[in-house]
Amino acid sequence: MGVLSFLLKAFFAPLMIVWTTDHAFTLLQNGFYIATHSSLITEDFLRLFNSHGFWFLLQIILFFDVLFFTLGYLIELPMLKNRIRSVDPTLLGWCAALACYPPFNIITSNILGWEAVQFPQFDDVQFHLTVNFMLLGLMAIYSWASVALNFKASNLTHRGIICSGPYRYIRHPAYACKNISWWLAALPALIECVNTADWWHLLLALASIAGWTFIYTLRALTEEDHLKSVDHEYADYCKKVKDRFVPGIF
């Protein structure tokens, strides 16, 4: 486990530090602009939202997500009860996780032919705002899951089971919310294919997005297999929280 733990931290810790710094810098930039152009909130909210508001809110959300993962990879102390009990030893588990992170996600995107859109654009203003606030809400739940993990946040490890926050309702809230947000973000491309009757590209787009959903489903399944193989704690949790992705459905 020592070698796998070292490889895990060596790969993910620098990545999380870079992302945390980038998110902090970007949210400060957008926050400063909003603070110095606050009159636009009432005068031209849509322009402010499109240019800086959406990105400010998204970067705040993502900052807290990567912050707790950064702390999780850098800090491991008995008093925090975040000791790594086990690292997933399977090639499938590692491949499923690494396929979602740089530089490997570039290969994944090239194979699937689609890369996630963070800020989808729509002609109808009300629909544009509704979809993007829904997207921000989903990403807020995604980040809430990371905050709930606290100092135990990390990939491919068993560091104890968290039953608080969104984990009270489903076993994989972060994966579920990220994938739903991607389907929402893909709506402009899907709508354009329907409007132009381009059924072949519509099929390709659906298959590409479904491919990403499959990868995250695989991540969930390999994580569950790993956690169950270590001790009975996760199996007991599964008895209490029966649904993986959608409360009351599956």
Description:
- With 250 residues, the protein is an all-alpha fold.
- The chain has one domain: Four Helix Bundle (Hemerythrin (Met), subunit A) (Up-down Bundle).
- Helix content is 69%, strand content 2%.
- The protein has ten helices and two strands.
- Strands 1-2 form a two-stranded antiparallel ribbon.
- Helix 1 packs antiparallel against helix 3 and helix 4 packs across helix 9.
- The longest helix is centred in the N-terminal third of the chain and has 35 residues.
- The chain is globular, with a radius of gyration of 19 Å.
- The two termini are 33 Å apart.
- The model has no long low-confidence stretch (mean pLDDT 96).
Task: Specify the CATH class.
Answer: Mainly Alpha
Give the mean pLDDT.
96
Question: Helical region count?
Answer: 10
Strands of the widest sheet, in order across it, are 1-2
Q: Based on the structure, what is the oligomeric state of the protein chains?
A: single chain
Low-confidence stretches: none
* Tally of structural domains: 1
Strand content: under 5%
The rough form would be described as globular
Order of helices and strands: HHHEHHHEHHHH
Roughly what percent helix? 55-70%
How many β strands by DSSP? 2
Secondary-structure content class: mainly alpha
Termini, distance in Å?
A: 33 Å
Q: Architecture, according to CATH?
A: Up-down Bundle
Radius of gyration: 19 Å
- Here the CATH topology equals Four Helix Bundle (Hemerythrin (Met), subunit A)
